[in-house]
Amino acid sequence: MFDRYEAGERAVLVHINFTQEGEWEDLVEFEMLVSSSGVQSLQVITGSRQSPHPKYYVGEGKAQEIAEAVQREEADVVIFNHALSPAQERNLEQLCHCRVLDRTGLILDIFAQRARTHEGKLQVELAQLRHISTRLIRGWTHLERQKGGIGLRGPGETQLETDRRLLRDRIKAILRRLEKVSKQREQGRRARRRAEIPTVSLVGYTNAGKSTLFNRITEAGVYAADQLFATLDPTLRKIELKEVGPAILADTVGFIRHLPHDLVAAFKATLQETQEADILLHVVDASDERFRENIHAVHEVLEEIDASEIPTLVVMNKIDNLEGQKPRIERDDEGIPTTVWVSAMADLGMDLLFEALKERLASQMVEYKLQIPPAYQGRIRSVFFEKQCILGEGYDEEGNLLIDIRMQNADWQRLEKREGAVLRDFIVT
Hints:
Monomer. Associates with the 50S ribosomal subunit. Strand 8, helix 10 and strand 9 form a beta-alpha-beta unit. The protein is an alpha/beta fold. Helix content is about 40%, strand content about 20%. The chain starts with 9 loop residues before the first strand and ends with a helix. Helix 5 packs antiparallel against helix 6. The longest helix is centred in the middle third of the chain and has 36 residues, at about 160-195. The strands form three sheets. A seven-stranded mixed β-sheet has the order 6-7-5-8-9-11-10, with helices on both faces. A four-stranded parallel β-sheet has the order 2-1-3-4, with helices on both faces. It has three domains: about 10-100, Rossmann fold, CATH 3.40.50; about 195-365, Rossmann fold (3-Layer(aba) Sandwich), CATH 3.40.50; about 375-425, no CATH class.
């Protein structure tokens, strides 16, 4: 279907430093991505520019240098640490006579290798198809093209149009199957809400140690490795917290700077575990010099998936790699735990993490007894019913609804904001 060079496992890497802040990428992280994909790096070509060149992304002289390096090293593929346009990819392939891959294509390739479950494979395929659909070029050259006039009329649709239609059909089919998976996940979440089981979701930059921490807490035996994107498929396990009871812990896919939008869209079903969580455990690699930038990158993705308002407990992991750092809990001015310093690998500070998590979850629940007049009963009761937070209900002699509720404080605050001060008046002290 695609008139492209075949890619191999021997690569020339290209990293350009830009003066524009928005174009900045990290060379060390890029080399880790390439290593995680199983590709052998033959040479790293670096350079500086103010802005990308429209034809080759790099300047013409640098493009020629890349082509010479490919020939000299006998490389199969050129990998850029940047997002290339379809035209730039095509121009570079014509110049280098080998496959050219950008940062998005590299991340997609890693995801394709890591996907284990049926859902994960579907999500990766969807992201790949969306990426490829913008890069469709000349189809099989022996086929006719559309032409006008007597004797020049070809088939009703060109090969390029056929390819696009096939891609569209496949994308629709995958979306239908993912919708089914999403509904199944929603049923599970509804059952947990009905049982009032809080969900704790692990989030963080890729390779921050989420899966190791998950295994330490749950003894689940989830695959964990010192490589980027070791986890793709979400894993859920039940844990017990003192004074809170059972909770669900979810291990999710790691985030990365400039995570491709196609991937965020494709992994919507997986990321819903994060969106629907009662609290996020934001795992940070404390030994990484760039941990502040990594925290910022995670916040950007959380905003993109509408999860930035969820209460968060920061877990500074890998303190065994730092000198003088001991397990501890940091609290805000009100005494609420905000950060826990631990090492999942060395089993340091796990008791403190449980303590902080217990405090945060217990503080997030509110219980009220309400007396609601008939005029407000229908609307407000339906909201409580939807939230599945009703503990008991009845009516007094005047027809007022007496209702006991237990719900997340965040949900109560949102409801109070919507209904105004009137809701506060219904509380029976």
